[in-house]
Write the structure tokens for this entry.
Amino acid sequence: MIDHKRNADKSVPDDNRITACASRRWQFDAQRRVDPGGSCRVWAGTCSDGSAAFLKWHPQRRSWRQEEQALRQWLPQIAQELANRPELLDSSEQEGLLLISAVAGEPVESGTDSEQELHIIHRQTGVFLRELHRLEVVDEDPVALSKAMPERLQGWIDKADGVLEDDQIVQATKCIGDGSLFANDRRVACHNDYQPRNWLWDGHRLGIIDFEHAHLNHPGFDLVRLQVGTWQESPSLRESFLDGYGQYPDWLDDERMDAIITLFAIGCVVWGTQHHQEKLVELGRRCLA
């Protein structure tokens, strides 16, 4: 058994212990580790029936619960024909493990897709996200978005440990203000890492993966990486996405999106610095410039 409680205290199991646990529990044959080195560890392999699957180990109960909820409760409510998506084959909260079915396709960020395909992909990602955002979910968070947004900013500032410049803190505080910008907005089911790295394309259909950050949030957080990344390079792809999304959100081009981008950027600088993710730090600094 993996002592998941101890994991929260930085005493983490090694790879062999995790894969051995999955082998005993599910007869899963872990063949290679495929994660890029983030907080979660992921192995590609096969189940006892020979089908391809992925084993995912979460160091934190929160991220395990977020992904487990998305796979078990949210995704089954979205029509399968809209996108290939992973299925939860089994799970163990005690060990922090998820056994997830494989999804066909290659990451869109690989750059091998044609311009025509990219427009099709972005339209399909818009369609899928529209359905995710429309799910009927109960927001049990007692803190309204208008209060949560400045609290999130302050949380990042408290963790910054000198990595934020004074003018960046002043700029961010002014941009988010007292949070009243979001007084009339509500949380929806969000992926929270919606970007080409987590989109797969098999030549015909879209695939969506990696729901470890999925939780109720302002819908703008599902567009922020696109707004500061892909869409800046190819603005026409934004139109294809919004065509699939079926509406032009009123927050997309006003002060609320500016505040979301600012909060995202502050998080990139702080978290990226602490976890030695230089590209993320550079992205955050560019957004704040």
